[in-house]
Write a structure and sequence with these properties.
Elements lengths: L1 H8 L4 H14 L4 E5 L3 E6 L3 E6 L7 H15 L5 H14 L7 H19 L3 H24 L5 H19 L6 H8 L6 H12 L3 H28 L1
Antiparallel strand pairs: 1-2, 2-3
Helix pairs in contact: 1-2, 1-4, 2-3, 3-4, 5-6, 5-8, 6-7, 6-8, 7-8, 7-10, 9-10
Amino acid sequence: MKTGYLLISGGAESYRIEDTIERIGKSLGHDVNCYVTVTAVFVEVDGQNSKFIKSTLGGTNLQMIDDINTLSRRLAEKKINPKDFTEEIEKIYQDKHTTDFPFYLKAFGAGLVSMAPMLLFTMPLYYFIYCFIVGTIGYGVSYYLAKLSNLPYVDLFISGFVIALLSIILSKLNLVGQYHNIIIGAIMPLVPGVAITNAIRELVMRHALSSAVKLLDALLVASSIGFGIATALILF
């Protein structure tokens, strides 16, 4: 149950969660049936004991999904015993996070991602530098606002606004000629690409409900960023 909860919190696909839980049950010598919705896990053990746990629609944590998948595979291959598996899952469950990286490393990665679109536009070197700076700042604003406030999508709106504002300032200072390219590059770390991909995969696997909810959430994220950018462009 806790494994399913963590996978939902990490943004895993419904069919992946069901398959993982059923494989864990089989590895422990039990007949397990699992059904997953967008925010809940239902588990039946040996046709008798039915259990239910509720989660919330979170973001995407690929590291958590990878860590849990690795643990479940090691359990299936008898490389770890059930006690060690339980202790590892319990540790992740109590901390509510898995292997994480320091903020400066995340921000640096966000800056590198922001530079990538400039390769497509074949822009001069200084555009790469400005994209790195604006993208890093935009990601930092989103990261810390998400920790300070529980209001959904507000951090993304403000981040989009800040990114557009900084790009406009660079243009006003005659440091760049096409500030729209800076905006396009800097919002890349915030775009919900993985969420949209997962929603499409859910649809292909015929999990229509999960697909629709995740796709709607991804569209709201993208819309929040877009409205933030549009507000800055209108005002300035």
